[in-house]
User: Fold these one by one.
Assistant:
Number 1:
Amino acid sequence: MKNLAWIILLGLAPAGALADGPAAHGGVPLDTLTPSGMQRLSIEAPAAAGRPVGLTFGEAGTPEVRMEVFIGRDGAEARAVLEDWRRTLVRPPPEAELGDGGYGEGPLWGWVRDNVFVAVQRVAGEADAEAIAARVDEAVKAAPAGAATAAVIPERVLDDAQLGDDPLPLPLPSGLVAARVQVCGPGYARSTRDGWVLVRTDPGVVTVRVLGVDDRLRVTRGDG
């Protein structure tokens, strides 16, 4: 019986190759987004291309600020994500003069700057979410033009002869800071001390697809 499993993978490495044509901002450097006095606690790849990357920041391991960042191919794509984000809120904040337009008040801010959507939310503590949003907007403004997406990661189709009986090492391309791995077929992916492996559960063909995020928060599209 076929199994479908999504596994979140996290790691840090240099940026990988690029794909697609130039956009106003070819991503936003990850290290420019950390609020002053905080550390980055986690990076979460989106469940699908076309959705934001999730970031969590805080002090002493305690989450205090949550961000969502989406790199669109153009401003229209980024604005569509902004409006989708607003529709998910029980009490959407009022319109705000931030970036090219958005919404914000108190602990919650969301806006678009050119082809980039960002949301900032204080989830604990006393951080000034508005000030953090303003600093992040400056980082987006400073981000150079370039490709809006990371390079496509080709899917792998593995048969019984390739899989064998032992767990199969599942190396990911360098340059990813986060990823989701989709395993379709009789198997699943799991983490080990030496990296990720693919474990089969029954005979049959297994397909592995990776949706990756690079260190400019660009997401793979296409086969990913």
Number 2:
Amino acid sequence: MGLVDDIKDRLDASIHRYEEKARRIRNIHQVITTTTIISLVILPPAILMLPKWVSVTVSLIAGMLYLLRSVYRFEDRWLGYRSTAELLRAEKEKFLTKLRRLREELKTDEYPDPLENDPYSRIFKMVESRSYYDIESLIKNISSRELTNWAELYYKALEKEALEKEAIEKEQTGSNPENPD
């Protein structure tokens, strides 16, 4: 699998994972918020019309739900996961756009895809192993200049390898001269 496919697969998986987390946390947040509101709306009539244990139970439920909302900060987590998914999506598009341009600049007959099997795909393993906050700071710190430099270094390594192969082939043909006629 090539670098671009690797990037797409890994980032798409990360984006999907964060979107799923955001969806799940949003659902929890909405259920807790709705239940809290309903409990608080039912509480005044429950105090007046229902037995005391019902109003106490409704009060406890509302209090516990509010406590859960405050402690686990579902809304902040939901927005954090959602913004991370969008940030990853934007960075993926920027990176792929830059790679397309770079690939066209570096393309030769000998190396039709100079960025194939790039060793720098380790960055995606780092992204996958990081937590939400680490990924956000990691992506913000990666500049397009660094990505260009990585690709240039890799292309130079490919070029050097090709020159070395060429030199070895010349040595081998020099020691085994063939008659061109």
Number 3:
Amino acid sequence: MLVFVASAIGPWWILTIIVCLLGLVKCCIIKPADVTKECINKHSEIVEHVMVLDSTGNGFRVVYATKEPVTDEQFLEICNRENVEEGFRRLKFEAPRYFGGTLLQTDICDFALFAFRFYVDDDIFIHNIFVAGHDKMNFYVRPNPNLENCATWMNYNTEQGNQYLNAYDINVCIPSGGRIYRYWKCRYLLQTSDTDERFSHFSEDERLY
């Protein structure tokens, strides 16, 4: 039977078919080494913690990250872009001026909308925003009459109780007209609020050291 097939289609056609089949099997089973390595080494990275402060040292810490997972080489290239460094510098300069020269009383949602609209680079986005500066952070350890044994001092290392926003808040909720306020490392119903609640959101029993 094989002799009949070979004589019918010719030996060169048989050889071509065999080579094609072997190539197809190899492509399905073996993944190129460089593609595998690239996939393993890609991950999202924090680009910079940009301290946007007024003359009194109060304001916000803006955390920028890569929009997509990147390799180490891609990450370094993004971080070293002149427009990225210049964008951070302009944000530090222009934000306090936009809000009247002081950020102490500036609402974090108002600042987040300004920062969201402030273009820096296509490959990065704002991952978090935290309140920064001792005076501004201390708003969130004021006495809370509705919380027994509430915390009344801020640990500036853990930042527990400090007000912040996450990526969804900054890039989706607030630009769509929403407002939300989060409190770092606080639990249950005290994690978030609909207004800027300038008092403590955790007790001394819940303090993280």
